[in-house]
């Protein structure tokens, strides 16, 4: 019998082991568009669980977005990566993705990176100044609500390692994001955090 565990990276699909109860709870939350906090110590499988649930939800027709906040050390980077992940979640086809970006983003500058042998990737930069900051934030973080309305599909967003957001500018951006999220009644947001991390800050 083969070893069901695969060490060293994130796991999904056939390598994903157990967690049936947690998965069912998250799927329930997705169905009801409830927002969920997933707390556990490091290396307990939060990211793996979230990604596996997203994979299954995608198979059921949801639009699924995953953002690892450890990869977004600044607010600007957060918004750039978020725009990229949202555009990726819309379609796997490059042309369609580009069209979506053209239609959707006015302040984000798409950058297409071409690497040999790979499908081109749309990256984003934003023109960042104190004048545009608010507009850029709104354009990015209000998108899941707009997509839900236009596509008539459930949108699921995972913010992995959410407490990292406090490093941007204290609690300000977090407050801004939460204000939008509260109005996104048909979107399911899943936040992960290392237990103890959030309340202690
Ligand atoms: N359900 C699972 N089945 C098999 N291996 C898992 C499972 N969940 C986590 N792992 C393994 O444990 C390690 C830590 O999981 P990870 O999702 O990165 O934890 P966390 O996000 O909580 O830090 C990963 O390298 C992964 O290989
Ligand atoms: Mg993790």
Descriptive report:
Mean pLDDT is 87; it is low at 1-8. The chain has a single domain (35-194), classed as 3-Layer(aba) Sandwich (Rossmann fold). The chain starts with 19 loop residues before the first helix and ends in a 7-residue tail after the last strand. Strand 3 and strand 4 (121-126) form a beta hairpin. By secondary structure, the chain is an alpha/beta fold. It is globular. The strands form 2 sheets. Strands 1-6-5-2 form a 4-stranded parallel sheet, with helices on both faces. Helix content is 44%, strand content 18%. It binds adenosine-5'-diphosphate (ADP) and magnesium ion (MG). Adenosine-5'-diphosphate binds at residues 5-11, 15-19, 40, 42-48.
SSE layout and pairing:
Elements (H helix, E strand, L loop, with lengths): L19 H13 L3 E5 L5 H14 L3 E6 L6 H16 L3 H11 L3 E6 L7 E6 L6 H9 L1 H9 L3 E6 L5 H4 L2 H12 L3 E8 L7
Parallel strand pairs: 1-6, 2-5, 5-6
Antiparallel strand pairs: 3-4
Helix pairs in contact: 1-2, 3-5
The chain binds adenosine-5'-diphosphate and magnesium ion (MG).
The site of magnesium ion has 3 residues, from helix 2.
Bound molecules: adenosine-5'-diphosphate, magnesium ion
Number of helices: 8
Please state the structural category: alpha/beta
| Fourth CATH level, the homologous superfamily | P-loop containing nucleotide triphosphate hydrolases
Please summarize what this structure is:
The chain has 201 residues and is an alpha/beta fold. It has helices spanning 20-32, 46-59, 75-90, 94-104, 133-141, 143-151, 166-169, 172-183, and strands at 36-40, 63-68, 108-113, 121-126, 155-160, 187-194. It has one domain: 3-Layer(aba) Sandwich (Rossmann fold), CATH 3.40.50.
């Amino acid at each position: 019998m083969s070893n069901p565990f695969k060490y060293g990276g994130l796991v999904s699909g056939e390598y994903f082991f157990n967690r049936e109860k947690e998965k069912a709870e998250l799927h329930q939350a997705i169905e009801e568009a409830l927002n969920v906090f997933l707390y556990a110590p490091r290396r307990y499988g939060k990211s793996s669980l979230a990604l596996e649930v997203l994979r299954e939800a995608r198979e059921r027709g949801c639009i699924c977005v995953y953002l690892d906040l450890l990869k977004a050390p600044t607010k600007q980077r957060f918004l750039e990566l978020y725009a990229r992940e949202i555009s990726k979640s819309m379609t796997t086809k490059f042309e369609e993705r580009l069209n979506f970006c053209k239609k959707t983003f006015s302040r984000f500058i798409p950058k297409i990176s071409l690497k040999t042998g790979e499908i081109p990737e749309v990256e984003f930069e934003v023109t960042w100044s104190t004048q545009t900051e608010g507009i850029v934030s709104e354009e990015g973080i209000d998108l899941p609500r707009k997509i839900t309305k236009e596509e008539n599909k459930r949108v699921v967003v995972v913010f992995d390692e959410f407490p990292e957001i406090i490093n941007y500018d204290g609690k300000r951006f977090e407050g801004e994001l939460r204000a939008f999220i509260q109005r996104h009644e048909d979107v399911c947001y899943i936040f992960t955090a290392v237990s103890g991390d959030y309340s202690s800050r």
